[in-house]
Design a protein that fits this description.
transcription regulation, single chain, DNA-binding, Homeodomain-like_sf, 290 residues, five-stranded parallel β-sheet, Rossmann fold, 3 domains, 5 strands, carbohydrate derivative binding, DNA binding, Arc Repressor Mutant, subunit A
Length: 290
């Protein structure tokens, strides 16, 4: 069998991974997710350290690289190292710097837990500045501004994000429909989406099945979809018109919603600026006072 031509740069590699992701094995999909979500770590860590963090045997990383046309993993890794020379600091690097500033400790006191979680949340928030393209925020705000109605779906841990969006969008005067999973009607409610309506879907690994199904069904109807998820390889991403990928990182207790909630707020502020024709000082009305 003819050996595939290896991607020559990081951008081409990511494009190839996206193209082949759906036909990859589960193990290779795990590797692909890790590579796309942690490019800085891939550049500086050994294959054994990367494999341990990913939960996949190191030999699988070598075979993954060979399947893409490289001689071995080191050839693939060089693309990440070249990218790193101009990239912003990665998540772990930000965490270490912030732990030094905040005086994070290894003891098991409540104060230690707070400091460590704050360091990780701040690092995730900083990453938004490099991970979120300004043009995507502009496009998403434009879609929301023009929408006849905005449908929102997010279940399990994603539910607080859509609850926030429903509140702020309603206060901005936009007609919103929350596809609530209670009663098992979310899928049926989604069928009422009209031609001029927009769907905002929020889901992170492990993706809620009903959310994925609704996104696929709405995409088939041709509606605009805005997705907030954890990877450009998530099942929401392939059907979305705008994808906000907010990589998740393991925390000591749970994964935080600080970055997704901040992104949701930024999106609504961008919309408010358009609706109010006020880019300098847009305001979100409140129930108690406008």
């Amino acid at each position: 069998m003819e050996k595939p031509v290896a991607p020559a740069d990081y951008e081409e590699l990511i494009r190839v991974i996206h193209e082949r992701y759906d036909v990859m094995s589960k193990g290779y999909q795990s590797i692909a997710l890790y590579l796309t979500q942690n490019p800085n770590d891939v550049a500086v860590r050994s294959v054994n350290a990367i494999a341990e963090r990913c939960g996949v045997h190191a030999s699988n990383f070598v075979r993954f690289a060979q399947a893409l046309g490289y001689t071995g993993f080191k050839d693939l890794q060089r693309l990440f190292q070249k990218r790193l020379s101009t990239a912003a600091p990665g998540f772990e690097a930000r965490v270490k710097a912030l732990e030094g500033e905040l005086g994070a400790r290894d003891d098991q006191s409540g104060d230690s837990f707070l400091r460590n979680l704050v360091a990780r949340d701040v690092a995730s928030l900083q990453a938004l500045l490099s991970d979120v393209a300004p043009d995507d925020l502009t496009r998403a705000a434009e879609f929301l501004e023009k929408a006849d109605a905005i449908y929102l779906i997010g279940q399990l841990r994603s539910a607080p994000v859509v609850d926030l969006l429903r509140y702020v969008l309603t206060m901005l005067g936009k007609r919103c429909v929350l596809l609530d999973p209670s009663g098992g009607l979310a899928t049926h409610m989604a069928r009422t989406i009209g031609a001029g309506d927009v769907l905002v879907a929020v889901s992170f690994r492990f993706y809620a099945t009903e959310v994925v199904n609704v996104v696929e069904n709405v995409s088939a109807k041709g509606n605009t979809i805005i997705a907030i998820t954890d990877s450009t390889l998530s099942p929401l991403a392939k059907n979305a018109d705008v994808v906000f990928a907010v990589p998740e990182h393991e925390y000591t207790f749970s994964r935080s919603l600080a970055a997704p909630m901040c992104l949701a707020q930024a999106l609504t502020v961008a919309l408010a600026a358009r609706l109010q024709n006020n880019a300098n000082d847009p305001r979100i009305p409140t129930v108690t006072g406008r």
